[in-house]
Amino acid sequence: MMKAIGMMSGTSLDGIDICLVDISGKDDYNYKIDKFQSYSYDKTLVNKIKEISKNDTSTVQKICSLNYEIGYAYVDAIKQFIKDTGCNMTEVEFIAIHGQTIWHNPGQMDGYFSSTLQIGEPAVIAYAFNKKVISNFRTMDMAAGGSGAPLIPFVNYQLNKNNYKNLAFQNIGGIGNVCYLPKSKKLSDVIAFDTGPGNMLIDGAMLKLYHLDYDESGNIAISGKIVHEVLNELLEDPYLYSKYPKSTGREKYNEEYLDNLIAKIKVYTNKNEDVIATITAYTAYTIIKEYKLFLPDIDEVILSGGGAHNKFIVKLLQKNLKAKITISNQIDAYEAFGFAILGHMTLLNKPSNLPAVTGAKKYVILGNITNPPCEE
């Protein structure tokens, strides 16, 4: 038996998720969450990440500097995790980090090479804890012709394959993504893609209109009215009709997009709660629309990520989908948990992408290994 740490910091920029994972077994491995904590990013760091994620405010110097600054933020978060949970680092075999995505272009946008960049220097973490660090999980899939995302569907398959019901795992982080597991148990039958915006636009609107980081439990959205004229227009977005494999991110749903969206809604209402209700409904209805366009029969939808706490989103999904809606018992930990599993696959020299999901030409081993600076 070994222990590992998985770390995730997503496009919602709400902080760093850390998961201590127990790994046991041989060949047919068992994975179990031991401890989990989430730590908010410093607001100054959030602003720096937003700056370098936009062409008009980014510089090479800022990107280079922030790569290391985020690495040190990860180190500080792990140190706090050790204090909070009593995690014994001598038992930890490796640390797997997703890193902070600042640009993701799988479709040769604007004539540039398909590419992706997650920052958070792994050497900083390896040096601080004298541990092996696995990072950069998306690049090998992209080198093989894939979109480099989504990657968690491999984890969903490993943990939940069954022969009695069709499952849809819907994560609602900054971006929404779904993984459909048919009861056939065939790896090649797994379907997964980004459904569209998750919390990113909601959180951005909350900050602009209410000076709050998010809409707790969806309470403000619940108090407002949906502006259907704008919602119907949004649901004609060509991305929603694009066939999978597909993925999206802050490059599309950025601040300019949000400003234009708020202005459109304000034509019909002067109430901020209506703006939040409409944007929140957009997240829910993108999920509903994508399911109806691309997924076969679903018996159960299992929600995870911050958006699973939003009662307005959950209510709309329950109203418009025939499937049973379940909130995951690993609602916030799942992605950090997943990257620990993906890191373990890297160390085992086993592929962990799904070509049918990402569009890659073949199965490949994901992740780069940064060795510890010295033997313990």
Written account of the structure:
The protein has 376 residues and is an alpha/beta fold. A hairpin with a 2-residue loop joins strand 8 and strand 9. It has two domains: 2-148 and 334-370, ATPase, nucleotide binding domain (Nucleotidyltransferase, domain 5); 152-321, Nucleotidyltransferase, domain 5 (2-Layer Sandwich), CATH 3.30.420.40. The chain contains 14 helices and 13 strands. It starts with a strand and ends in a 6-residue tail after the last strand. The mean pLDDT is 95. It has helices spanning 43-52, 60-85, 122-129, 139-143, 152-160, 200-210, 219-223, 228-234, 238-241, 255-266, 272-294, 311-320, 334-347, 355-358; strands at 2-8, 16-24, 30-39, 92-97, 100-105, 115-119, 132-135, 167-172, 175-181, 191-197, 300-304, 324-327, 368-370. The strands form three sheets. It has a six-stranded mixed beta sheet, with helices on both faces.
Percentage of helical residues?
A: 25-40%
What's the CATH C level of the largest domain? Alpha Beta
- CATH-defined topology of the largest domain: Nucleotidyltransferase, domain 5
In the CATH hierarchy, the architecture of the largest domain is: 2-Layer Sandwich
Distance linking N and C termini: 19 Å
Query: How many DSSP H or I helices?
Result: 14
Oligomer: single chain
Tally of structural domains: 2
Radius of gyration: 20 Å
Shape: globular
Low-pLDDT runs: none
Determine the CATH superfamily of the largest domain: ATPase, nucleotide binding domain
Strand order of the largest sheet: 3-2-1-4-7-13
Class inferred from helices and paired strands: alpha/beta
What percentage of amino acids are in beta strands? Answer: 15-25%
Mean pLDDT: 95
Main β-sheet, in a few words?
6 strands, mixed
Q: Count the strands? A: 13
What's the SSE pattern?
A: EEEHHEEEHEHHEEEHHHHHHEHEHHE
